[in-house]
Amino acid sequence: MLILSIDTSTASCSVALHNNGTLLGCYELFTERTSAAMLTTLIENVVSHSGFTLNQLDAIAVAKGPGSYTGLRISVSTAKGLCFALDKPLLAVNTLAGMVEQIRSFYPDNYVLCPMIDARRMEVYCAFYDTYGQEIQPTSAEIIDETSFADKLSTGPVLFFGDGAAKCKTILSHQPNAIFLEQLITPSARTIGTVASTHYEPCRVDDLANFEPFYLKDFMTTKPKKAIL
Q1: Residue 164, domain CATH
Q2: Which of 63, 86, 119, 191 has the largest CB neighbor count within 10 A?
Q3: How far, in Å, CA of 2 to CA of 197, rounded?
Q4: C-alpha distances in Å from residue 121, one per residue of 5, 30, 144, 168, 222
Q5: CA atoms within 13 A on the CB side of 76
């Protein structure tokens, strides 16, 4: 099972290639401006440098969100285009599930894992998982205050991580069960491919034409300022 995975759900841009769950190659860029042309180049490189062609792929996996509106549009449209052109299935993986896969094996069973993606101001995209990678509480957009996640924190240790966790640390530091990972964990195609390989059928998208990214909330725009004459 040869799976190409793509993740541009945040500022980073990454592609990876897995064969039967084993990572063959991965390219990652950390830039504020991900473009479709940049992504296409990375895809071509990771496949060819691993000794394969696009036609040999069995499926394309993509981080479906939550995350950056523009980033998700780029990755999902690119993945769908490849699926249509190559007649391959699309596998959609929650971005937060991919983040959990990066660290879950390092923590004991009594830990709850809470990946967080910054969603402007004091809002984050987050979800709760156990250390087996199973979702405990589904993805939501949460505005953080001193009472946030009180129910989860009252039952045991919760590990918060990701770029959204930094702004929560001061507010939740009074909670003894609130633990914050010092290392910054960013979404990556490396673990999107791992999750897709392990959970192939649950991730498979049946209606490719109508599939949309998991934005979680509407795209916010600002009104242009009036020109001063």
Answers
A1: 3.30.420.40
A2: 63
A3: 9
A4: 30, 22, 9, 11, 15
A5: 26
